[in-house]
Specification:
This protein has 236 residues and is mainly β. The chain has one domain: Exo-inulinase, domain 1 (Jelly Rolls, Sandwich), CATH 2.60.120.560. The chain is built from two helices and 17 strands. Strands 1, 3, 4, 6, 11, 12, 13, 14, 15 and 17 form a ten-stranded mixed sheet that branches. The protein has a seven-stranded antiparallel sheet with strand order 2-5-16-7-8-9-10, with no helix packed on it. The N and C termini lie far apart (44 Å). The relative contact order is 0.24.
Length: 236
């Protein structure tokens, strides 16, 4: 039975990969192991087409830790791209997808983060400045432009259309679909097909135009994050 489940999962991955290739997307995860990814193997694993990051009371993390994508054709940093993924998170904890970020060593990253937050709206799907000093760059439902003088307290927010619908977009404890579109200094984030963040970074010294991509396990209470169908299209 276990072999049958594994085969079905792999067939599903192949089907997703074929459809993605038609649209110019390439899978970042082979569905069986963590080839191309770099992280603490005591916390990260791959099983039946899913990347799993998990901490327990017996096996915690002292600080935020990341599984960093180091594969791909260029084996380098990403610039302009579209990234699609499906994620599921336990009802405790915090996670996210790090992108255009610096690799600080020891599986620590700094930069933009598509945040997975169990607090729900407007936290789930927000754009966060991981290890930076700008905090919440844009919450779920916000269109924000950030210049050289903008702070969290002074940022000007334009509510995105269909704001009320965004409050119920997230399926807690279930699979959700995320998407990041980064072109130049403009970032779009989607949750289950709906644009939840529209962010333009005009800060001359802090904007990030390239960097690494990774998945986060947050320090604190035991948690579990699962990711699958991770697809990338680089924009030339």
């Amino acid at each position: 039975m276990q072999k049958l489940v594994t085969v079905m999962c792999l067939l599903g991955i192949m089907a997703v990969s074929i459809r993605a290739a038609d649209d110019g997307f390439k899978p970042l995860f082979n569905g069986t192991d963590l080839t191309g990814w770099d992280g603490n193997t005591k916390l990260w694993s791959a099983k039946e087409g899913v990347i799993i990051g998990e901490t327990t009371k017996e096996n915690p993390t002292k600080g935020n830790t990341f599984l960093i994508f180091k594969g791909g054709e260029s084996k380098g940093e990403l610039k302009d791209f579209e990234l699609k993924f499906s994620f599921r998170m336990s009802t405790t904890g915090n996670s996210g997808v790090q992108f255009r970020s610096k690799d600080l060593g020891n599986f620590v990253m700094k930069g933009y983060q598509y945040d997975f937050n169990n607090a729900g709206f407007p936290q789930m799907g927000k754009l966060y400045d991981e290890k930076g000093d700008r905090g919440y760059l844009a919450l779920n439902g916000e269109k924000v432009a950030w210049d050289n003088t903008t702070t969290v307290k002074t940022k000007v927010v334009t509510p995105l259309p269909d704001l009320e619908n965004m409050k119920t977009l997230w399926k807690k404890g279930d699979w959700n679909d995320g998407e990041i579109i980064a072109t130049g200094n403009h970032i779009i984030q989607k949750l289950n097909g709906v644009i939840v963040v529209d962010f333009t970074d005009n800060n001359d010294t802090k904007k990030l135009l390239s960097g690494w991509m990774g998945i986060q396990i947050h320090a604190g209470a035991p948690m579990k994050i699962e990711m699958k169908n991770i697809l990338l299209k680089e924009i030339k």
